[in-house]
Specification:
- By secondary structure, this protein is α+β, with helices and mostly antiparallel strands.
- It has 2 domains: 343 residues, Collagenase (Catalytic Domain) (3-Layer(aba) Sandwich); 199 residues, Neutral endopeptidase , domain2 (Neutral endopeptidase, domain 2), CATH 1.10.1380.
- It is built from 27 helices and 12 strands.
- It has a 4-stranded mixed β-sheet, covered by helices on one side. A 4-stranded mixed β-sheet has the order 3-4-6-5.
- Strand 10 and strand 11 form a beta hairpin.
- Helix 6 packs parallel to helix 14 and helix 18 packs across helix 21.
- The radius of gyration is 25 Å and the shape is globular.
- 51% of the residues are buried.
- Bound molecules: zinc ion (ZN).
- Zinc ion binds next to strand 1, helix 21 and helix 23.
- The site of zinc ion (ZN) has 7 residues, from strand 1, helix 21 and helix 23.
């Protein structure tokens, strides 16, 4: 069981080991440069191509990456910084402080490939034997509780989160889950790419069962069982787009009601085995899933369910077992992402430490990289963006004064976190051994699961962070009503101390505006200033809002991502709304700054571009990217963010400010006939 991320990130939440690069790739520098511009393109015809054309021409996707983006280089330099920290911590020996012992020995146990290979599947044997020994379905549920604690997530998800109607209080949640492919659609749809991935999954499962000791025939039959079970779970899972509406995930009930609704889940036995406090109420996010899967559990033989659970334990462990397991695991990822080769082991090991002991590694990362100056400049920009969004809201012609007043209260209540947490998480209870990679992974997962469980029926800790300091990302959380910017994103191309304000407002300024706007997108607008799911809109204003977001949804649904696959305008609605609103308020904040600058320096052109043009170029530059077609296909099905090209062109074609800055004429592609505007 891991923390459930209900917040909205600026970028795709990168899964561990999904991203990496080879050092050998040739590519332009990470910061803003006019060299990236393709001047043969008319900015009013395709602004993305204009801003990124030369960057795209001069960049290659490294063999071990599914994509290469402007900020990939930043991820890469972060990995190098973390590697140095970890190598130093590892070599420190007996006199090290406890933080360095933990991060150093976890990294060391992961890097010791020889020891890992020599052990083969042995480190996982105790877990496999536990499952094999299970005699009935009630005992299997208790076993699943144990497995959830140490990492893998078969059958369903269990976590803690704030109560949707009382955000200050944390409660228990049970949720749909238990799938291996990235989305339910992969099991229930017959598009060519989905059918192909089911085949890859069957191959992958066959391979792992064979490696675990089954005959090829048995293994193939076990793999089919896995597909059957997961297809039944998928068929009863809610679509991603529907899950975007928090009202569809709002089903608080008593523990007794939940237990009675799905008796085959033996939830009381599950909660006891997981060691939860004795809570009385919980949120069953998707009751239909539990009702329907209850019948699935009843109908399936115990042995089939055990095979399915074994599979999840095998696939969860595969990246940390011997080479044949690692290779099989990579082959599946390759099918999904198009990545040509696995990333170097040290990068996978850095990712493991970041995912397991993130705030301990993060503490060292911050000491090595983050200055006070960055935080001060960020605070100033956040204040400027908040002011700008406030003016934007107050100036809306379609919103009544009542709703505007409420919106202002919410905006003023948004907290911000910048750089790193005030207090780092205490990992002292996790035992990390230099010679026990699998055990380390399980103990770190168990520590995190128990930390999440311990929050149930306690007040929400508003100081907690949902990302680690090195992450190149940012987020808005509705229940916390806060915007968060880890130290990792406060670097070029997002934030460059050596650059003019125009470029930085197009970069990190837009990210700040984007996160603030999330508080008022199709999801965020449903939460009040304290983070409760409560409607603070007048009925008429709500209708006006829906009309405007429908325009955005229709607009983006027409963009072609790859082959004949168009974007899902509903899935990406919140992000597109935030991109559009963020660009508008960031530019407005820049205009204020130019107007207030008595020296006239802010208003000057640089490299032949006006501040407004540099703002848009800085924005475009952030999204320069190349993606493999396999990866793009997966993105369209699962990622709430649009591809870079449309994060740029979709926004600028809606902005009269853009058209003015670049002298675009009506009828040109970057001048939308029906421009959409929410914020
Ligand atoms: Zn976002």
């Amino acid at each position: 069981m891991r923390a459930c991320r209900f917040w909205v990130a600026f970028l795709l939440v990168m899964t561990s080991a999904a991203f990496s690069q080879s050092a050998a790739s040739s590519k332009p520098g990470p910061g803003f440069s006019v060299d990236n511009i393709d001047k043969s393109v008319d900015p009013c015809v395709d602004f993305y191509q204009y801003a990124c054309g030369n960057w795209i021409k001069n960049s290659e996707i490294p063999a071990d990456r599914p994509a290469w983006q402007s900020f990939s280089e930043l991820n890469e330099s972060n990995l190098e910084v973390e590697r140095k920290i970890l190598e130093k911590a590892e070599s420190g020996g007996a006199g090290r402080n406890p933080i360095d012992q933990k991060i150093g020995d976890l990294y060391g146990s992961c890097m010791d490939e020889k020891a890992v290979d020599a052990k083969g599947i042995t480190p996982l044997k105790p877990e496999l034997e536990r499952i094999a020994a299970v005699k009935d379905k009630g005992a299997l549920i208790e076993e699943i509780a144990h497995i959830h604690l140490i990492g893998p997530n078969p059958l369903f998800n269990f976590y803690s989160n704030s109560d949707l109607h009382n955000a200050d209080q944390v409660i228990a949640y049970v949720d749909q889950g238990g799938l291996s492919l990235p989305d339910r659609d992969y099991y229930v749809k017959d598009d060519a790419d989905k059918v192909e991935m089911r085949k890859h999954l069957a191959d992958y499962a066959t391979q792992l069962f064979t490696l675990a000791g089954q005959t090829p025939q048995q293994a193939a039959s076990s793999a089919q069982t896995v597909l059957v079970v997961e297809t039944l779970l998928a068929a009863n899972s809610m679509e991603r787009t529907k899950r975007r509406d928090p009202k569809n995930r709002d089903h608080k009930m008593t523990r007794d009601e939940a237990v009675a609704m799905a008796p085959e889940f033996y939830l009381n036995r599950y909660f006891d085995a997981a060691g939860t406090p004795n809570f009385k109420e919980l949120n069953v996010t998707n009751p239909d899933f539990f009702k329907q899967v209850n019948g699935v559990i009843a109908a399936l033989p115990l042995e089939s369910l055990k095979t399915y659970v074994t599979w999840h334990v095998l696939r969860g462990a595969a990246p940390w077992l011997s080479q044949p397991f690692v290779d099989a695991n990579f082959k599946m990822r390759q099918a999904l992402t198009g990545q040509k080769q696995n990333q170097d082991r040290w990068k996978r090991c850095v990712d493991l430490v970041d995912g397991s002991l993130g705030e301990a590694l993060g503490q060292r990362y911050v000491e090595a990289t983050f200055g006070v100056e960055g935080k001060q400049r960020m605070l100033k920009m956040v204040a400027a963006l908040e002011k700008s969004l406030d003016e934007d809201i107050q100036g809306l012609s379609w919103m009544s004064d009542d709703t505007k007043k409420q919106a202002k209260v919410k905006l003023m209540a948004i907290r911000n976190k910048i750089g790193y947490p005030d207090q780092y998480r205490d990992y002292s209870l996790i035992l990390i051994k230099r010679d026990d990679l699998m055990g380390n992974v399980e103990r770190a997962n168990e520590f995190e699961s128990k930390r999440q469980i311990a929050k149930i029926d306690k007040p929400l800790d508003r100081k907690e962070w949902g990302m680690t300091p090195p992450e190149v990302n940012a987020y808005y959380s509705g229940s916390y009503n806060e915007i968060v910017f880890p130290a990792g994103i406060l670097q070029p191309p997002f934030f460059d101390k050596s650059m003019d304000d125009a470029v930085n407002f197009g970069g990190i300024g837009l990210v700040i505006g984007h996160e603030l706007t999330h508080g008022f997108d199709d999801q965020g607008r449903k939460f009040d200033p304290t983070g409760n799911l409560r409607d603070w809109w007048t009925e008429q204003d709500g209708k006006e809002f829906e009309k405007r977001v429908n325009c955005v949804a229709d607009e983006y649904s027409n963009f072609v991502a790859v082959d004949n696959m168009k974007l899902n305008g509903r899935l990406t609605l919140g992000e597109n709304t935030a991109d559009n609103g963020g660009a508008r308020v960031a530019l407005a904040a820049l205009e204020h700054m130019i107007a207030d600058d008595k020296s006239g320096k802010e208003g000057q052109s640089i490299d032949g571009y006006t501040p407004e043009q540099r703002f848009f170029l800085g924005f475009g530059r952030v999204w320069c990217e190349k993606q493999r077609p396999e990866y793009l296909r997966m993105q369209v099905s699962t990622n709430p963010h649009s591809p870079g090209k449309y994060r740029v062109n979709g926004v600028v074609q809606n902005m009269p400010e853009f058209q003015k800055a670049w002298n675009c004429k009506a009828g040109q592609p970057m001048v939308a006939e029906n421009a959409c505007r929410v914020w």
